[in-house]
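User: Please fill in residues for this 152-position structure.
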């Protein structure tokens, strides 16, 4: 989920469905193109529409997304003051939440904290959000390969 809450036409949420997504190549241009195409669609007030195979756009707010995902797993909040991910036991069905270069707003963080998420970091330095997810996925992959803490 990519939640966009700025601008006069907000909120908008772009959702990628891994099992059905097409045209997503391992480069920033294809990802940006899929997001741009989704944002160009006329979005209904209720429900979601598909902008391309496996990419959907809706009017869900951050709070709506948190409420929806709360039923599906356990939240893990990536934040600089969290526990090092290498020392963390990942829950079953982890749902990772992270902000951009400005972090979550106070209201967004309050909403997330209502779900009692675990809070982790990926190291001693600030990184781009996409790099953080790569490091988390790498940690999960290493553990799965070693037969430990299968959070997948």
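Assistant: Residues filled in for all 152 positions:
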């Amino acid at each position: 989920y990519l939640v966009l809450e700025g601008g006069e036409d907000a909120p908008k949420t772009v959702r990628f469905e891994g099992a059905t997504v097409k045209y997503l190549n391992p480069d920033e241009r294809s990802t940006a193109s899929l997001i741009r195409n989704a944002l160009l669609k006329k979005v209904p007030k209720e429900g979601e529409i598909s902008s391309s195979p496996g990419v959907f756009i809706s009017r869900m707010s951050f709070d709506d997304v948190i409420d929806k995902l709360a039923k599906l797993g356990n939240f893990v909040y990536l934040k600089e003051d969290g526990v090092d991910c290498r020392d963390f036991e990942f829950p079953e069905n982890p749902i990772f939440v992270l902000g951009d270069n400005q972090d979550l707003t106070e209201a967004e963080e309050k909403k997330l904290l209502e779900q009692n998420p675990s809070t982790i970091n990926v190291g001693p330095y600030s990184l781009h959000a996409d790099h953080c997810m790569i490091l988390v996925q790498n940690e999960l992959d290493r553990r799965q390969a070693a037969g430990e803490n299968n959070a997948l």
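For context: The beta strands are 2-4, 12-16, 48-52, 55-58, 74-84, 94-97, 118-121.
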